[in-house]
Structures are given as C-alpha cells and as structure tokens.
C-alpha cells in the first residue's frame, strides 16, 4: 500500500471475533489518525478511517524526484522518544530504520557558515564559550554575565512565558536571534518570542524553575540526557513518508476499513450512547469517534456539540511552509558543498530560505535511488511570512538557488526540482497553549465516546503525534460502549 489508493478491509474485524464488538470511526488519515486506528484495531476494535483527501499521511509524504525516492515532508523522527520508533517496528519497518550518516550542521549567519555549537538545549547554551564565533564578542560576553543577574524567580515562570522573551532577558537577544530562533523555526515554523517555553521546551522549563540561572538549568537538562544511548534521530530507508502506508497496511490487515476522499460533513450524537458520522451521502453509525484532524476542521465538527472546545480550536493559529527539493549531478554539487548535513538560517539575516538539508549526505538510503545524483532541499516560510508562499514554484526554486549559491557556492543548475507546499501545516504553540489544550480536552470529555489527537495537542513531532493518538485510542478502549458494541442501534 503506498497511501495513494483506497483501502478496504471492510468490516472484517466484527466478524473475526477479535474480542471487542464496538465500532470506532477515526476522522483524519494523518499519522495521528493512522496510529490511533492501529492501536484500536490491534486491541480488537472495529475501525473505520475517513480521510478527506486522496492521500494518507498528512505531513509525511514519500515521493520521487529524477526517478529516485525522496521525502517531501518530514524526513526524520526523534528516537529518544519511543512512540514513533515502536510504531515503525510494529508495522514491519524495524530493519529499515537508519540513523543519520552525519548530523554535523551549520548556521548561516553574518554572511558565513558557522559550525552549530554543541552543549545547548534548543539553542540555549550551558556555556558561553560554546557560542564563540557564532555570536559577536558582545553577545558572548552578555551570556557570560548571567551570573550577575538576580536568580530566576520561579514565580516569573508561573503560567508560562515565551522562549525568546525569557532567554533574551537572561542571556541577551543575540543568542535568541542567531540560534534559538532558527532551531525553533525548524520545528514550529514560528516566532521564538511567541512560542511557549513550557510547551516547546518542557524539560528546560522545569529545570529553570529549580535553578538560579538559565545556564545551570541547561546543564541540568544535559546531565539528565547524558545516560541516553543510541541516535537522537532516525530516518527510514525509502523515506519517513513510507510510514503511513505501512501503518495503513497493518490496520487493514487487522480488519480495519480505510476510505480516502471522504470528508466528514457532520458529526452527531444518537439518542443512545453512539455517534452518527455523515460523509457525502452516507451515514455511518459508530460507538466512538476519534477526531484526528487539524484544529480548524475539528472546530467545525464540534461547533454544535462542544461550543467551548470549538471556540478554543478555532483560535489555534497555523504556519505554512514550502519545501523545495532539488536533484544535482553529484560531481557538480560535491565539488562545492561544505561538509555536514546542512545549515539553518536565522530570520534576522533576511534570507528567503530558513534551512537547507543535504539529504544525500544525511541519509544513506538516498544512494539507493541514484548514486549519480545528490539531493538536497530547502525550506521556506515562517509564521507571519505567507508572502513567500504566494510565489510561483519556479520563483521559490530560483530564490532557493540564490541563497544556496550565496551560502555554499553551489551555482550548478539542478537536473530536477519539486516544490511541496504545506499550507496551514504547523500549529503554533504560543504562551498559554497547554492551558488551551486542557480546556479543549475537558470540554471533549463531557461527550462520552469522543477523543481528540494530533499535532495541535501534545507536540508537532512524529513521536508526540503517535503518543497523542495512543492516548486517544486508550480513552476509547476504556469506554464500556466499545466493549459491548452498540453502533447501528442508535436512532435520532
């Protein structure tokens, strides 16, 4: 299954005697929806997945360029969290998990590529010497002066604070603008001066409440992580974009029913304990529903059922971005590209691209497609910078080539290119986001048989989305209605 065609294992779970007679409809076929469906089906529930588009996977997308496989969406997953790696292994991809061949990156700032410093937590240093060369002498000196500041007052962190605001207050704006901002921008495509410290860097938030200086808090986070073994990130041979298809195959193998091009127009309660889902001209009866959609879609479906949750979801902002994937003749690219896996670009430097990944350097599996080509990609777009995404594909390719030439000296023409746009791709986590999520979940909890999951709730990374999906599935599996199965008997 490649995630592009309809799949139907229709209704076989109920006939297979897998232990639970209930029926759950999962709305949304991104990685969160698929992970929830897999968890439910593996527990013996009957599952139907409804995906509004003609493709599964959400922001995970495998594709081809110049006849070779490439990732057109997320390309790696955090391995220090177990959820995504365990899911990949559970659906038969364990032998295709690969660490990066190199993780040495740079920061393109002040007109030069500068080595990414070591010893930081999301760009926040534990030692000012680590940032020497990346920052100006004044910026490095400012970091070193933190010890002269009054100790951190835990009360100033009560209720949350923006990452950029807090770090700038303790260490100066330059470290935020040159390092924290591009690192956070790579994860959230957001603004460090708006993103929640508690939501985006929770371990640092907790340690900052217990230590007198921010650098001591960073060192405490590093000590806690020092015992971890194995790579920080993993990819999948053939692309992380192959994961949704493998999960979908596993779901259908367990009797699940996955339907593409099936937008849900209405979600209603029945007079019993069940649900009625309208998709096109069809009404589907269910004992439970998992909403694994972006916030705006969930908001529309919950408008009459849970107005408070709907209003909170409608207020969630999203950032859009584009990925420009380029294929070069290897000999031409290798002659000029610097060592390493790519570079980040701080927004303060005023460039079009915000990062570039040398994919063929970073992932060994890309050589399986072609050993004569070198693949790299750039990313464009941050929250509030929608004007770049209104440019034509050719303009984005040209702008990427201009920045690549300035950063690396690569002036050769690519042999092929593709632009992938992720409109509304990344939910923003501003100050107060976790409180908003808590209010949404509290409102949803008043509707038995309904659970929510996805990137908007517990983190935008793949492991966080899978963990969110498992939480939703477990909530459903604990419901008596799923154990007994009432769908089909409800009437308005």
Automatic annotation (TrEMBL):
Residue ranges the record marks as coiled coil: none
Pfam families hit by this protein: Amino_oxidase
Subcellular location: Cytoplasm
GO MF annotations in UniProt: oxygen-dependent protoporphyrinogen oxidase activity
EC number: 1.3.3.15
Pathway: Porphyrin-containing compound metabolism; protoheme biosynthesis
Cofactor: FAD
Keywords, in A-Z order: Cytoplasm, FAD, Flavoprotein, Heme biosynthesis, Oxidoreductase
Domain annotation Amine oxidase: ranges: 31-477
Catalytic activity: coproporphyrinogen III + 3 O2 = coproporphyrin III + 3 H2O2
EC category name: oxidoreductase
SUPFAM superfamilies linked: FAD-linked reductases, C-terminal domain, FAD/NAD(P)-binding domain
InterPro entries given in the database record: Amino_oxidase, FAD/NAD-bd_sf, Protoporphyrinogen_oxidase, Zeta_carotene_desat/Oxidored
NCBIfam families: proto_IX_ox
Primary role: Involved in coproporphyrin-dependent heme b biosynthesis. Catalyzes the oxidation of coproporphyrinogen III to coproporphyrin III.
Membership in a protein family: Belongs to the protoporphyrinogen/coproporphyrinogen oxidase family. Coproporphyrinogen III oxidase subfamily.
Annotated protein name in UniProt: Coproporphyrinogen III oxidase
Taxonomic classification: Bacteria, Bacillati, Actinomycetota, Actinomycetes, Kitasatosporales
Gene name of the encoded protein: hemG
């Amino acid at each position: 299954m490649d995630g592009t065609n309809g799949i139907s294992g229709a209704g076989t779970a109920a006939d297979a005697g897998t232990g639970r007679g209930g029926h759950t409809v999962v709305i949304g076929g991104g990685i969160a929806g698929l992970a929830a469906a897999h968890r439910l089906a593996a527990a013996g529930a009957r599952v139907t997945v409804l995906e509004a588009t003609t493709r599964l996977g959400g922001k995970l997308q495998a594709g081809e360029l110049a006849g070779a496989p490439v990732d057109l969406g997320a390309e790696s997953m955090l391995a220090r969290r177990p959820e995504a790696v365990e899911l990949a292994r559970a659906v038969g991809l364990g032998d295709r998990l690969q660490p990066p061949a190199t993780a040495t990156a740079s920061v393109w700032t002040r007109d030069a590529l500068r080595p990414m410093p070591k010893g930081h937590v999301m760009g926040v240093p534990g030692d000012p010497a680590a940032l020497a060369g990346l920052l100006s002498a004044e910026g490095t000196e400012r970091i070193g002066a933190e010890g002269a500041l009054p100790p951190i007052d835990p009360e100033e962190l009560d209720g949350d604070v923006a990452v950029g605001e807090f770090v700038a207050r303790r260490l100066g704006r330059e470290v935020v603008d040159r390092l924290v901002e591009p690192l956070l921008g790579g994860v959230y495509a957001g603004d460090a001066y708006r993103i929640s410290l508690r939501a985006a860097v929770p371990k640092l938030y907790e340690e900052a409440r217990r230590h007198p200086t921010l650098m001591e808090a960073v060192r405490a986070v590093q000590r806690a992580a020092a015992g971890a073994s194995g790579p920080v990130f993993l990819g999948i041979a053939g692309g992380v974009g192959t994961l949704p298809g493998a999960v979908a195959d596993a779901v259908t193998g367990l009797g699940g029913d996955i339907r593409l091009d099936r937008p849900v127009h209405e979600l209603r309660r029945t007079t019993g304990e069940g649900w009625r889902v309208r998709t096109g001209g069809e009404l589907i009866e269910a004992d439970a529903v998992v909403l694994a959609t972006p916030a705006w879609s969930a908001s529309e479906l919950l408008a009459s059922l849970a107005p408070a949750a709907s209003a909170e979801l409608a207020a969630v902002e999203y950032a859009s971005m584009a990925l420009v994937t380029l294929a070069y003749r290897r000999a031409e690219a290798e002659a000029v590209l610097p060592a390493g896996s790519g570079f980040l670009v701080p927004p303060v430097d005023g460039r079009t691209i915000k990062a570039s990944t040398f994919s063929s350097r970073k992932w060994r599996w890309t050589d399986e497609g072609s050993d004569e080509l070198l693949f790299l990609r750039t990313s464009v777009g941050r929250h509030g910078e929608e004007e770049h995404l209104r440019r034509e594909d050719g303009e984005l390719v040209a702008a990427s080539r201009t920045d690549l030439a300035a950063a690396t000296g690569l002036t050769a023409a690519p042999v092929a290119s593709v632009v992938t746009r992720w409109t509304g791709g990344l939910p923003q986590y501003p100050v107060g986001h976790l409180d908003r999520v808590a209010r949404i979940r509290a409102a949803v909890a008043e509707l038995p048989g309904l659970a929510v999951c996805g990137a908007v709730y517990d983190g935008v990374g793949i492991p966080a989305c899978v963990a969110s999906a498992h939480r939703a599935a477990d909530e459903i599996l604990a419901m008596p209605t799923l154990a007994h199965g009432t769908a089909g008997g409800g009437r308005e």
